[in-house]
Every structure is written in C-alpha cells, then in structure tokens.
Amino acid sequence: MYFIDVILPIPLKQHFTYSVNKDEAYFLKPGMRVSVPFGKSKVYTALVYGVHQNEPPTYETKSIDQILDETPLVTPTQLKHWEWIAKYYMCTLGEVIRAALPSAFLLESETIITRTAKEPLDDSELTDDEFMVHEALTHQSSLHINDIRSLLDRKNVVKVIQTLLEKGLISVQEEVFEQYKPRLKRYLRLSSPFSEEDSLRELLDSMSRAPKQRQVLMTLFMLSATEEHVESTQLQKKSDSNAPVLRTLIDKGILEEYYLQKDRVEYKGEAPSEVKKLSPAQEKALEQIEASFQEKEITLLHGVTSSGKTEVYVQLIDSLLSTGKQILYMLPEIALTAQLITRLQHYFGEKVSVYHSKYSLNERVEVWKNVLAQRSKAQIVIGARSSLFLPFQNLGMVIIDEEHEPSFKQYSPAPRYHARDTAMVLAQMHGAKVLLGSATPSLESYYNAQEDKFGLVLLKERYGNVLMPDIELVDIRDKLKRKRMKGHFSDRLLEAMEEALEEKEQIILFQNRRGFSPVVECTTCGVAPQCPNCDVSLTYHQHRNELRCHYCGYQMAMLVSCMACGSDTLDPKGFGTEQIEEELRALFPNQRIARMDQDTTKGKHAYEKLIERMENGEIDILVGTQMLAKGLDFRNVSLVGVMNADNLLNFPDFRAHERSYQLLQQVSGRAGRTEKRGKVIIQSYNPLHQILQQVSVNDYEGMYKEQSEERYQYKYPPHYRTIRITFKHRNFGTMQKASVWFGEVLRLQLKEQVLGPESPAISRIRNEFISNILVKIPKQQSLQKTKTFIQKVQQRFNAQKEFSRVKVIMDVDNY
Length: 815
Known about the structure:
six-stranded parallel beta sheet, 36 strands, 6 domains, alpha/beta, 26 helices, GIY-YIG endonuclease
C-alpha cells in the first residue's frame, strides 16, 4: 500500500493522508497538486507533502480523485519557507498555501457552472459525459459541481469540467473557481502549395480583379521579410483590409491560420538602454553596500528622499544579471510599481515581470510559471508583498524599498505575516543578500543596524545636489483667530499655491482621510449617523451623495433630516480628500485638479493613468491620501501642502509618532526633486509638537533616539517582541468572559507581560465585539517557548464549550 500526505488550503493543523496506487506513488512528488475528496461531499485541490507507505492508525484513507500536475508547482524551498511562516506567525500551513498560491491553482467543489454562448462545432467533438453536462446546461441556467456528480453518477468530474472549460463551452463563477487559460494569438502564413515561385506568380496574376486580396498578400510578403510570425490583426491593419477579406483567402486555401501561446503581460518597448552613471555620493554608497555584503547578509540603505536610491538598486541588479540569479524587488504599494516598472524596463527590457493583486489570475499564473521555469523574462520580479511566495529557484538578491511601510504587514486574513521579515528568511534559505531602502527607516531596522546585525549605508545628499525642501509650519489656530483661513486653506498655503501655479509648477496636497467628511452631525441634538454594524460614525461621500462605513462597507443615502429629532440641521464635520477637491475647484476654477485615494483607484490601471497624467503635466493640483507619500517621483512638483497634521499625531497607537514622522517626511520628499528647491507647508493646530519640529529640520536621529528611549521605558518593539491576541464574538458578554479567562490563564506563567483584555478604539466591527490582549516578550526570553505556551492555552480554551464560537486571532509582531 502507498500513501501520500497532503496539505489542504483550509485552516486545519495537520496533514491528511490519502491512498494511491504504486504507479501514482512513483509519479507523485512533493509540490504537485491532486484533487481529493474531503468531508461528505467536498473536493479540494491539495498539495502533495510527502509519499510513504505508513498507513494512518486513526482513520481509513480515501483514494485521491486525480493528479492535476505533470511536474511540481511548488519547490522544496517554498514548502520549507511556508512551514516557517506557519510556525512563526502561529497559523496553519493550509492558510499559508491559500495566501501563497494564485486561486486559479485551487479548484474547489463550491463551484457554480454556467454555459457560455459558444456552441460546439458538432456533437462528435464532445465525449458522452461532456455532451450530458452541456445538454443539461441548455435546460438549466447553472449547475453546482455536486449536481454534475449526480448527473454523471461518479465522484471524479473535475476532468470533464476542465475539458469543457478548455473548449470554451462553459464558464465558472469567478469567486471560487478560476481556471487558468493560456492566451492564444492567431497568426497567418501562405499555404504550402503556393510556396513555389511559379505557383505564386500564377496566383498573383489571377488576382488582378481582386485588388484587396492581392494587397493583403503583398503586405504579408513584406512583413514576412522582417518577422518570423505575422499576426492576423497586424496584417489586417497594415494592408488596410478587413476580416472578411482575410477569411476569403483562408477559405480559398491561399492563407492558413495557426495559433501560438503568448503571455498576457509582455514588454513591447524599445531595446534596453545603458544604465545611468551614478553621482559620486551614489557611487560611494554602492561601494559601501558591496563591502557590507562581504560581511553581512542584510544591509540598510538610509538615503534621504530623492537621493537616487533606485539608481543604486539598478546598478546592483545589473551586476547580478549576468550570474543568471533571480532578483526580487518588493514595494509596499501597487501605485509605486506602476512608476517603477517603466524605469526598470527602460534598463532591463523584457527581463522584468510584475506580480501583485491588481493583475488578473491568469496573468499571475503566467508569472508563477515563468519564475518556476527560470525564464529570463522573469529574472527580475517587481511586486507587492505577495510576490515573496513565488517559486524562486535561484534567488540572488531581495530589494525591499520603502521598508518602513506598514503596508508590508498583512493584517487579515491569516497568515498575518510581515513581508519584510518573511523576505529576509526567504533570502537566507536561498543564500541571497537583502537590501532594505528607506528615507525614514523603521525603528526596528535602524535598531538592528545600530546593534550591528545589519550593515548601514548612508546617502545624505539628494541627486544632483538638489536642496532638501524648505519645510514651513503654519499655526491654523492662530490663522482662525485672525480670520485668515479660506475653508481649510490658510492664507500662507494659498499664497504659495498661487506662486507655484504662476510658475507652471505642480502641487500635491495631502489629507489622510478619504470621503467628503468623516462625521455628519445634527447641530440641534448633536446626534451623528452611526454604522449599524460597527461602532463608528458614517463618512459622507459627496460624489455619490451617500454615507458609508469604511470598515464593513455599509452604505445609505445621505440623510435629508436628522434621524433622532427630525430637524434638517445636518452639518458635515471634519474633512476628507473630496471636500478639499471641491474647495479647490471653487478657489482655482481654471486649474486641472485630480484626486488620488481608494475611491479613485479601484480599476486595474487606475493608478497608472493618474500617475501618467501627473507626469505628462495634465494635472496642476493632485489631492490624495497616504498613497501619495510612497516613493512617487514627479519632476515638476514644487509645493507640497499637508492639510492637517494633527489627526496623524493623535492616534491611539504606540507607533503614532514614528508613523507621523515617516509619513510627513515622505510626503515632503515629493517636493522639489529637480534643480529648484521645493517648498512644504504643514498646517497644524500644534506646530510646536516635537515630531513636527523634527520633520521641519529633517532630524531622523533625534526622532529615533526619543522614540527608542520611550519604547524601552514602556517595553515595546524593538526592545520587546509583541503578540496581540484578538477575541471576536457577536455577544459582548461571551466575548468579555472569553478574553478575561484567556488573560488570567496567560498571567499564571507570563505575569506582568500580559496586558488586557482591553477594547480597541473601535470596539465593534461587522457586528462582532472586539477585545485585545497584548503579550510583551523580553529579548532574553525564548519566543518559541512563549508561543508554545500560548498555543497550549488556546487548546484548553477551544475545549471550553461556552467559548466554541469565539474567534481567536493571533498576530505576532503586530506592527
């Protein structure tokens, strides 16, 4: 008897064992996919973990349905890395696999199948089973996968569905069942009977009465001289013809069509250009990085904004390419990849691949397969945090740009990993080097550099010796007293904006809140509309005239009168990007104004379009949220305005001051990136705040020392490790009782290291009440032993019947 252990993409702790025959056992290898029955009626795509001959003692094994791959889809290093993620971040391997694999690889039985409009050429091209399914779909609008099982009277129906999908006769509901389809392109060539010169001359002579057809043939000869394959659309365009003319030539047997598989994302630009020459400061930084890599695996490049860190990365990538090693370039925000792809393709042409969630499933599958096969078109991978799950075979370097960004942390669902830390472990497994880059490094990375765990390289001057922007703090309280505010704009900011616009320069305005207004309040009775599912007020979005919850997505039409007292004295309080945009249109009616926030960048190419318009000078004033602060490079921006810095500083989080410094410093760095010195105006009710003073003089060292001292005093990272345990339940009493029980049991061993349970600032989301426990672990204490103890407590907790429906979420390193 032969058996395989598989991992299912569901949150279960252990592997499951299935029986296979001898041939299957010899064929199967870890990392291949198989479809397996699970429970009463479900079928899952599972990943083979091991092949052996040990029968499980506790249950009778089922046999697998079918093998889905010819070769492993996942490498042994990937499996080892995913096991580390599951262990370190206290989640299951199934959850890691669900996050790591593109969902096109995970067929499931929760699938609705519908018929497409396409008809089969004739019934003989379908097998009996395929015909039965297709026929059933002509009478019913859709079928569940279990209906197909009943119809065909057999369990294994995935193969039938796959062949019908490939023939384009059915489609499946996108949320749960996406099947990868290769993209085929149609090409045309001259049929073989006419390849001889005599027959070709005869053919052209006979076409004197069909000038359009003759023109198509002449164009085909011309194109064939320079290109191996001639695309049908290209031929049609160049010969100024149409589809019926081409079809006639095919029907006459003069032309023949054939199809080739093409990747969906292809580089169509010019040949790669020479890598730019570095400035002396960049040259020195590059030498220091290379020297640092001789001794250390990880180096932190602390370079001020616009110091040309990307050019240094490009040189490092260039020196690695000839070795054939793969390079992973990670960015926190999809908006950033749009700008960077163009720059890297400029240097490295088609060697660059992109991988992030705005790409379709099919596109992601293609990148996965290219990386797995070590194709040159995927030698450099640019991506957001999910790109570290790709099947690298020969990783040489990982570059993590803007490493301080909170977007690198995955908060929900599990695995709640930090992409920066996880990528470091991946690099270690491959023996690759890691370069962290930032103008405002995270306290953890800078602390590790100070402790000599990481190498540290400083790049203190901007490229081309451009001066750092001049940062000015404006006291809004004083301006309001003197009646020098127009809406949310101080006279100083408006004056600077008018100057910049006169000079034909661009302006960025930063307000870290989307929507029109975060609260709508009745001035008569003081009641503000609340979300029925969350403990938070609804945000007013003017462009749709609706109130919306930013936590659960609940929305309702804007109220005409107060729900409590009936009076129509509703007043929007506070302001978001929408309100700033509206005020700008009134103040500057002749300028081109655009907004960049979550509402305006929903489409696949929305980021690229906005960035392109900004680069081409089609936007005069761009208003946006923190998306704007993340490393974008606009050459003609001379002024940056921060509308209100206070809502960043007064946030209930131990990182609020560090994050505020980073965000304000980063957004300031968008100004004056060419010869002219940029200007930054930060509006605040408290301009004397320590963090604002440090931002105004670019004092990172001062901020680091102050925050590090404070963190040491109150036992927070980087001096202590933290694990946050969150409890969620629809009944407040049950949730409270569960979190108190858990906290008390933890305190038996961990004593004062356990804080809470405490309700967070927003204590109910999606009708679930929330409570948090924070465990602080000193450096000298074993992190693994502490986690093992917490997991034992969780096992005891799960055994308590009254807490069976309470959700417990573990978040390790919750920064």
